[in-house]
Amino acid sequence: MVLPDDVRRAAGGAAPGRRLIAIVLFEGVDLLDVTGPPEVFSLALRETDAAAGYQVVLVAEGKDAVTTSAGVRILPDITFEEAAAGGIDTLIVPGAVTVDAERRVHPLVDPALVAWVKVLAGRSHRIASVCVGAHLLAAAGLLDGKRATTHWSTARQLAADHPAVRVDADPIFIREGNVWTGAGISACLDLSLALIADDLGEAVALRVARQLVMYLKRASGQSQFSVPLEQVSEVRRIEDLRHYILDRVAEPLTVADLAAYAHVSDRHLTRLFKTELGATPHAYIESVRVEKARHELESTDATLERVASRCGFGTVDTLVRAFRRRLSTTPTEYRRRFRVPQHQDAPGAG
Question: How far apart are CA 234 and CA 227, in angstroms?
Fold first, then answer.
């Protein structure tokens, strides 16, 4: 493969007026983690009149093709050793997972890769992880004492494996100094937009967002949608309670009601919820109601009063407060951004 001169010189820095973005490659890496950010950065260059922009290079241990989790093979531009010889503006560390027989995901954390990430981070102006790439940053000691996020499915493991990291599974991305961590796979687009805004300003980032048909950039504090309902407990009693709540979400639900159903004390119920689901019963019930309301807003034209009633909030004010608390937005704004148009038959259809 013949590389352009500016890519061959990447070990010595980016082309004039360009910020060098180095994306780490390794076997089994999630494909979108790797390909998503370059698409966003390329649009930034298209949306600006100035020559300033980005130069993206893919870095790996060697020059051989790397097979991603999707089976797509990608060729690196330069090696880790070459990248470490020069300066890097932004180091992006994607992730990879394995899935066991019980369909539980486990992040891949190779010690040799961690060692290179630590070296490259020392040559970088800023560092960013995508999805479970946060586990690699944490293993390299780059998240110690910092607040960080990752995909919700591995957040507990990140916290357990690295007690010095303040794990927050809710936001779609978090910035702590020069270290950025992103949540679920598609959040790499939001993270990339935030990096562009940091470099080139909000106006450019918003223009890029429009080109991506993202309509509106999601703020860093916005929640990873659907997290609470995906949390599964191995305790049968808690699983029964989760289904009990889902079936009765529109009804008044109290800790006493749930405790009576589970045949435990109120205090023991609260301990079970905190241990198994990481939330109090009240917080979990609210998260389920927000999730149901989110679906209603996406798929129906029901009034806010109707949505509040169907989802157990009682009043629109309560619904609005819950959305602000959980999703950092309002029900009206959420519907405007995520409403799925209903299929309409073509004129004259039978």
Answer: 17
- What H or E segment, with its residue span, contains residue 147? strand 147-148
DSSP label of 343? P
- pLDDT digits 0-9 by tens, 264-318: 999 999 998 888 888 899 999 998 999 889 888 988 899 999 999 999 999 999 9
Can you read off the two tokens belonging to residue 174? 């978090």
How far is the CA of 162 from the CAs of 9, 104, 341, in angstroms? Answer: 37, 19, 43
Alpha-carbon distance of 109 to 89, in angstroms, equals 24
DSSP for 62-84, written as a single string: SSS-EE-TTS-EE--SEEHHHHH
pTM of the model: 0.65
d(CA 345, CA 62): 54
- Residue-wise pLDDT for 120-134, tens only, equals 999 999 999 999 999
Sign of CA dihedral 265, 266, 269, 274: negative
Cα–Cα nearest to 193, from 223, 172, 170, 179: 172
Q: Is the pLDDT of residue 342 over 70?
A: no
- Note the maximum CA span of the chain: 71
